[in-house]
Amino acid sequence: MIAILYNSVTLSMLISVCLFQNEWLEMRVNIGWVFFGLSGLLFLLQLVIHPLRKFCATFTASALSLVISCSGILLLLDSESVRIIPASIIREGLMINRVPFAAINTAMIAFAVIGLLLILLRRDRK
């Protein structure tokens, strides 16, 4: 279950950053809401589709999801934007504009590292 949520969030961030690149869309739609809605939709799809659920619940799939998402975001954004846009998407979605980007970036990095470690530890239990 953790792995499926992890994959949903990482891939949703990549898709949200891609959507953020479209200025027309970004000015008219809260991309943060798209991020959270897409995360929920991908989570449900992974739960419902059995072969997808079996694959996505693995450490390999989670590591691959993280690598693909980070690589895609790094290809799309320059070094300054990579520190601002993902955090901005989350801030918009949660409507917490007073929280600094650095705090949100720290939380995202913690989610990425701790989530992957939890998935790895869960894998060893089986």
Q: Would you kindly provide a written description of the structure presented here, covering whatever features stand out?
A:
The protein is mostly helical and 126 residues long. It has one domain (2-125). Helices cover 85% and strands 0% of the residues. It is built from seven helices and no strands. Helix 3 packs across helix 6 (81-94) and helix 6 (81-94) crosses helix 7 (101-125). The protein is globular and about 40 Å long. The two termini are 14 Å apart.
Class by alpha and beta content: mainly alpha
Helical proportion? over 70%
- What profile does the largest beta sheet have? none
Strand content: under 5%
**Between the first and last Cα atoms, what is the distance in angstroms?**
14 Å
Strands, total number: 0
Keywords:
126 residues; globular; 7 helices; single chain; mainly alpha
Secondary structure elements and pairings:
Layout: H1 2-20, H2 23-28, H3 31-48, H4 50-56, H5 59-76, H6 81-94, H7 101-125
In short:
The protein contains 7 helices and no strands. The chain is an all-alpha fold and 126 residues long.
